Amino acid sequence: MTSSITRRRALQTGAAAALLTAAPRMAFAADPVIKLRVLETTDLHVNVMPYDYYRDAADDTVGLARTATLVKAARAEAKNSMLFDNGDLIQGSPLGDFVAYRRGMKKGDVHPMVAAMNTLNYDCGTLGNHEFNYGLEYLQNALGTAKFPLVCANVVKADGETLLKPWLLLDREFVDEAGAKHKLKVGVIGFVPPQIVQWDKAHLDNKATTLDIVDAANKHVPDLKKAGADIVVALCHSGIAGGERKGGEENAALHLAKVEGIDVIFTGHQHFVFPGGKEFANIPGVDVQKGTLHGKPAVMAGFWGSHLGLVDLELVKAGNTWKVANFSTEARPIYDRVDRKIVPKVESEAAVVAAVQGDHDGALKYVREPVGTTSVPIHSYFSLVADDASVKIVAEAQAWYVADLLKTTPYKDLPLLSAAAPFKAGGRGGPNYFTEIKPGPLAIKDMADIYIYPNTVRAVKVTGAQVREWLERSAGIYNQIDVAKGGEQNLINDKFPAYNFDVIAGVQYKIDPTQASRYDDNGKVVAPDAHRIKDLTYNGKPVTDDQVFIVATNNYRAGGGGNFPGADGKTIVFEAPDLTRDAIMRFIIERKEVAPKADGSWSLVVPPSNVTTIFTTGPNAAAYQPAGIKIEKMGDAPEGFIKYRVVG
């Protein structure tokens, strides 16, 4: 197979091109012109090798080893180039867990993600929210051997200083189109979602706080320009979202684009691709074709190494200043999908593979270690439409763990519920992004397959009214089905992440998708008279608003992640030191054999027969039939998915 790459560009103009239109190109003929290519990786999540540790199989859709080949080719095409990373490096795959929990990470040790990146001569990077999952000491040790600097402007330590340098000036020499050399100062500034103080409260309390992304930019970008930056690149580990700015946004890249002095924005966090992507269509200020945010060039390079982001800048010198006169943006993939099959576009870069081979082998040995057995299949193919064993085993393990630890506390006699969500449910992860564990031995890799995040166990004390509203928020994953309209309608709201679809075990209820969602995608009440949750009961009796429950959940949800009623950090009554994944593993070890059963504790209210309610799932779903709901296969769907309809 060839490693050559076909360039598919989206040439664009935006505000910069308007300048060229207003002034004839010949006016710049005597001025130096530099063509600079800036490159982005983002959300690598310790995916270095093209390998899926959960399936224990090769995977051509992931891996910095493949992205590195795109980097090499992109550099060869340009006279001048720079490479940046946009965060979420050290957590997110079993390779990362192997290092954190088995191999260890002392000061001076080289993290495999860093070892791989050090072979590519990155110019600079920033932090992602998942950098904080293992604590500040681990973060510092893991990134301490990086041969490239990192910046972050909106994480502030208890002493008032930023955790990292907020910005840097990189002195670089570039060659113009006439062959002359010029020294430029490239300013780089970084940002992370301010919600990290909620998501990793246990690690950051009394140690660090965060600033709003735009406020931090307004504070530091003028200093960056005053220090002599010729151009400014923003490394924004934050996504693209519309709406009025209120401050504290998790996805603030569009608002950041309005900050004067920033020339290029690298985005991430959302695991989407930009330019392109239906997720960003019709957002004022966003041009998905040209790849601009309020006229400024921007890219989001997918996730797990799936893409390389490119921004080609044409810099023109006028007097003593350099201006962006034109630009183009692109997100280059490491694979294509042809006839529903993955076709790799590049091979792995040998130096990257060699840098992590030892840790990769260690991770494989680690994830294959057995812990117990299951007598039933555990899969997530229908986890968004029916009660599901892959979610139920998490809920059971959490409840078992919390019940044991609360038995000597004042909460021991309160009814105990358990909230869990499906993590691997297709979506942007693709048609193979599902949990599927066949009956038989369960290994550590299966624990990571069932529960992919390094969350810790929490317990919250809530009322029956809050339980109901918690479920209403969760039910936002469904589009409203229009009975009057009839016909074929998509059930699942693609913008709603599956990890926010909490199922609460211990109560019984139905969800009616013909009703409007009470909450929008950000957790704000938008339809106060709407009620999707029906027949909510506990032990066969209706749940009353003033009943009191303990809910076992995780630190992300209990700390406010997803903006769920009853889970804002103020209702926590117990904080466990253990990972949810470890609680699941202990549960299985004690049981020796498990048989998680989807017992129909929740179900969908099926719309009338004039509506064809459809959803998509993975090809392997055909081997299974969900409990409590009737479905019918309808045929192939885009991107390798299979389309089903809900029958009853």
From TrEMBL:
Q: Which GO terms describe its molecular function?
A: 2',3'-cyclic-nucleotide 2'-phosphodiesterase activity; 3'-nucleotidase activity; metal ion binding; nucleotide binding
Q: State where the protein is found.
A: Cell envelope
A Pfam family recorded for this sequence: 5_nucleotid_C
From the UniProt annotation, give the residues forming the signal peptide: 1-29
Task: For this UniProt record, give its keywords in alphabetical order, as a comma-separated list.
Answer: Hydrolase, Metal-binding, Multifunctional enzyme, Nucleotide-binding, Signal
Q: Please list the cofactors this protein needs.
A: a divalent metal cation
Matches recorded under CDD domains: MPP_CpdB_N
**Calcineurin-like phosphoesterase domain location, by residue?**
36-271
**So what does this thing catalyse?**
a nucleoside 2',3'-cyclic phosphate + H2O = a nucleoside 3'-phosphate + H(+); a ribonucleoside 3'-phosphate + H2O = a ribonucleoside + phosphate
Do you know which PROSITE patterns this protein is assigned to? 5_NUCLEOTIDASE_2, TAT
Domain spans labelled 5'-Nucleotidase C-terminal: 433-565
Q: Name one GO cellular component term.
A: outer membrane-bounded periplasmic space
NCBIfam families noted in UniProt: PRK09420.1
What family does this belong to? Belongs to the 5'-nucleotidase family.
The protein here is known as Bifunctional 2',3'-cyclic-nucleotide 2'-phosphodiesterase/3'-nucleotidase
Q: What organism is recorded for this protein? A: Microvirga alba
